[in-house]
């Protein structure tokens, strides 16, 4: 038999990429890679959380060489894994065949780092030689399977523990998975087509003529109101930036930021709205253009981090300690005792985002810009 189906590169229902490109067959293929461990990672919900969880992948591949990695998520997150060579299959829960898929494979390792009742039900279907994270008990309640997952379970349940925690999310999920953490990076790789899309935008707006291009991600999703800095704050920042020589501003956001970004872009031709209806991958590509990114604690933070951009992140209700900075994220937090409250709304005056000044952000931009030049 010429065919070697137990190869990392063979998709099963069609020729592999190497055969399509060169016509090579398994008996004389130099790319043949026998599958080692079969690993399933289960993570869905917020896109930014799914993206930063990809920091597990380099460590998993290091711990399990030649592993075949499958990722279970939601359909809206599938594009996160485009051009990601560390994930061999992406499954999504909206697939009518998903239950059959989950029941038909025994995995060597399953990692489900979320105490989420919805995803825990899927995790409980899976046969696994080693299981890490959270499953459902027979009564339907979520339960941690061991000590590291118990620790994360308690952090999610008790506000005082959440405030005291000093571990990053990446450290926590590595502990849950039972693998060493060496600050492995979030995995996001742009395709040549996506890079060309970004370069086309750069040329159209003559960004090459500016020494500094500052990206402002002005939103933060709809769940946490006070992850988002104030419009007055951004207005004051833009006013200062456009007065700087050879500096342009790029505005980022989703549909909820359409009016906000329109108001900011009207302040000067040097303020360019990148659009609020881009596809996920177009958003990623455009985020490759700024020299510095300013954002709240939201998906753009993890995108900028993955693209290795110097980043200033503004924190209020969520934990700055849980954010891995990789040596390139400057964290701005107001001096308030109520931080890390995880409240959906707040009646404090001033609130945490009101307490972040334009000067705070400008000083951080200057610091990272100077460091970047050096």
Give the SSE layout.
Layout lengths: L16 H6 L15 E5 L4 H7 L2 H8 L4 E6 L15 E4 L5 H7 L1 E7 L4 H7 L3 E10 L5 E3 L2 H11 L1 H6 L4 H9 L14 H13 L7 E6 L13 H12 L4 E6 L5 H8 L5 E3 L6 H7 L5 E5 L2 H8 L4 E4 L14 E4 L25 H16 L1
Q: Give the H and E element order.
A: HEHHEEHEHEEHHHHEHEHEHEHEEH
Top CATH class of the largest domain: Alpha Beta
Q: What is the share of helical residues?
A: 25-40%
Q: Biggest sheet: strands, sense, closure? A: 6 strands, mixed
Could you give the distance between the termini? 59 Å
Show unreliable segments: none
Could you write a compact summary of the structure shown?
This protein is of the alpha/beta class. Helices cover 33% and strands 17% of the residues.
Protein traits:
14 helices; 2 domains; alpha/beta; Rossmann fold; 6-stranded parallel β-sheet; 374 residues
Description of the molecule:
By secondary structure, the protein is an alpha/beta fold. It folds into two domains: 30-177, 3-Layer(aba) Sandwich (Rossmann fold), CATH 3.40.50; 192-373, Rossmann fold, CATH 3.40.50.2000. It is built from 14 helices and twelve strands. The protein is globular and about 70 Å long.
């Amino acid at each position: 038999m010429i065919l070697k189906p137990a190869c990392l590169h063979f998709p099963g229902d069609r020729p592999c990429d190497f055969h399509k490109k060169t016509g090579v067959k398994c008996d004389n293929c130099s790319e043949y890679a026998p599958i080692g461990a079969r690993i399933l990672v289960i993570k869905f919900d917020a896109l930014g959380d799914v993206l930063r969880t990809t920091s597990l992948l380099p460590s998993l591949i290091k711990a399990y060489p030649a592993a075949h990695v499958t990722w279970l998520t939601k359909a809206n997150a599938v594009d996160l894994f485009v051009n990601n060579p560390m994930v061999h299959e992406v499954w999504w829960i909206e697939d009518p065949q998903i239950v059959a898929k989950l029941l038909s494979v025994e995995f060597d390792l399953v990692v489900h780092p979320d105490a989420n009742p919805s995803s825990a039900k899927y995790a409980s279907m899976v046969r696994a030689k080693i299981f890490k994270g959270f499953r459902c008990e027979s009564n339907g309640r979520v339960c941690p399977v061991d000590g590291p997952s118990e620790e994360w379970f308690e952090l999610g349940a008790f506000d005082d523990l959440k405030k005291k925690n000093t571990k990053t999310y990446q450290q926590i999920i590595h502990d849950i998975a039972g693998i060493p953490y060496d600050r492995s990076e979030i995995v996001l790789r742009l395709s040549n087509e996506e890079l060309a899309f970004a370069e086309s935008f750069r040329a159209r707006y003559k960004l090459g003529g500016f020494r500094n291009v500052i990206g402002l991600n002005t939103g933060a999703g709809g769940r946490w109101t006070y992850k988002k800095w104030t419009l007055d704050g951004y207005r004051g920042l833009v006013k200062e930036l456009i007065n700087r020589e050879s500096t342009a501003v790029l505005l980022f956001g989703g549909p909820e930021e359409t009016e906000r970004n329109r108001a900011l872009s009207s302040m000067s031709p040097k303020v360019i709205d990148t659009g609020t209806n881009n596809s996920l991958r177009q958003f990623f590509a455009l985020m490759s253009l700024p020299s510095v990114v300013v954002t709240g604690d939201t998906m753009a933070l993890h995108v900028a981090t993955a693209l290795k951009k110097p980043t200033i992140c503004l924190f209020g209700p969520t934990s700055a300690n849980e954010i891995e900075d990789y040596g390139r994220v400057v964290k701005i937090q107001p001096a308030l005792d109520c931080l890390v409250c995880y409240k959906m709304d707040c009646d404090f005056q001033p609130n945490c985002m009101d307490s972040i000044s334009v000067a705070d952000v400008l000083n951080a931009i200057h610091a990272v810009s100077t460091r970047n030049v050096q």
